[in-house]
Amino acid sequence: MRLFKLGSQWTIRFLTIGILGYYLIMTISGYFIDEQHVLAPSKTQLIIGAIVALGSFALIWGGAYWLANRYVGWLVTTLIVLTIPKFPLIYFFKIKPASDMYSYSVIGGSSASGDSWKWLYLHNGLDLNTLFPHVIHISSTFGWIDRFFINRPLTIQLFNLVITLITAVLFYYLGRQIGHHFIGVLAALVFYLMPNYYIYSVLLGAEPLWLLCLTIAMLCFNRWRLGHWSMTNGYYWSWLTLTIVFLTLAQLIRPIVLIWPLAFVIFAIFMIHDNHLVTHSKTRTAHQLGGCLLILTVFLVFMTASPKIDRQIYHIPFTTHTSLYSLAVGSNYRAKGMYDPILINQLEKINHHCPRSQRDSKMVALLRKQLSHNLRSLQQYHQWFSLLTIKSRIISQPIYGLQLFKQNTHQVNGRPFANNLRTPFSRWFISFNFGFQLILNALALLSLLVDWPNSKHWRIGNGLLLMAIILDGVLIASSLVEVQSRYQISWYLPMIILAASAMGRYEPDRPDFKAKEEQLAAHSKISQ
Q1: pLDDT tens over the chain, length 528 residues
Q2: Where are the transmembrane segments (predicted)?
């Protein structure tokens, strides 16, 4: 079993290094593809951007070193101060929702005004969103927030701003759970100062809420797996239940969360005999795999029942084949695995001209036909690797923040803000973003090379293994479904923790280190 554990750890390690190395190359090559020539074609700009980004990471490390020797309230205060520049972004650039954000704003605002979901469906107010239940979930959530406060897009902007701040604090606690205090501070600062996400978080995106739910789920899971309690202890079931609840909430917002419970099961199999404390070996090895299987089972049952539950709640005939669209688009070589206007027009035609009783079946038939055609075409013309390369470059491009900010805002005087990125500021900002992401990716690789497996600090070693498995899952999934640059947000949680671990390898003296050791010793004595 020991050989199995070591072999599996090293297998995951090399797999993650290979995948991360591939995406590092795709990020660099994606910078110079033809489609990017209007954005940042200069090698000089990329080099300068990377140097500035490297300086930013040095400042983050220095700030984290200073904060790590102080009470955690100093970190929270720092994050609040870093939030202040977001208010001018909201005030001077008024929101003008487009694309998905338009749907969230209009549908959610209509719901907050008292329009029923059935009425919206019957009057074509939901358009194609019966194919995308997560859009209705997001709009419904935003609608309830508008009801409690003010029915304006500004409410959701401020909501996203607040929960992004909260998520940064939770990143601290997650980093501290897996590693130590310094790693937690680094994780919080790196996450909060991600240039693209910093700008994106002032818009109407659903990712801030999704990332909040996912981070809470990870905290609960780690609290459960690191606890030294038996199945008769209430905390055992409380943390396990909370993990399932927040994974489910995250799935309702963005339906790719199956990766996490699958990663938990794989992790539990690899760590089934990880007896870091002999006195607690029974409580750690006998039930953790079963608990992870329970999380996966309940999650799968929910996914199966979700369309029926949605129909009962919203009184809308949601389709039971929501993943078909993403697979059909993601396998389309002509559309580069991105939004396909031709397919959308065909779906719109069905939606507007077919009887309601036939819409779902006709849409599903069209999507199946498109997916089958795409797969035959990829096989016939040997385009599998070419499509994978194209999609990897697209999702690796860290341009979504500025791009979506310009698409969804206009100036105070009402004049439309330029919806192109052909400005000197945009070029330099995007070059800096590329540099920031390259360094983040490189740090994650460094963590895998030098920090793990770590037999001396069992939490760090195990935590990095868990992050690596999750990162493998989200990176591989990115090659299968529809891609957009903003979908890289799903990488942030595992990648930032890995990067923070590399940056925090040489940790400062921690005032809480001895207290944590004393607390662990006290738990051991009580259990004995």
Answers
A1: 566 666 677 788 888 999 999 999 988 887 777 555 556 567 888 899 999 999 999 999 999 999 999 899 999 999 999 999 999 999 989 999 988 999 999 999 999 999 999 999 988 888 888 889 999 999 999 999 999 999 999 999 999 999 999 999 999 999 998 888 999 999 999 999 999 999 999 999 999 999 999 999 999 999 998 877 777 788 889 999 999 999 999 999 999 999 999 999 998 888 766 554 444 444 455 578 889 999 999 999 999 899 889 999 999 888 767 788 999 999 999 999 998 899 999 999 998 888 888 888 899 899 999 999 999 999 999 999 999 999 999 898 888 999 899 889 875 555 544 445 567 788 888 889 999 999 999 999 998 888 665 545 555 667 888 999 999 999 998 888 899 989 999 999 999 999 999 998 755 444 444 444 544 454 555 445
A2: 12-33, 45-67, 74-93, 154-175, 182-200, 236-253, 259-277, 289-309, 428-452, 464-483, 489-506
Q: What is the Cα–Cα distance from 344 to 323, expressed in whole angstroms?
A: 15
Q: Among residues 406, 523, 499, 497, which one has the least CA distance to residue 177?
A: 497
* CA dist., res. 392 & res. 337, Å (int): 10
Positive or negative torsion for Cα 332, 338, 341, 347: positive
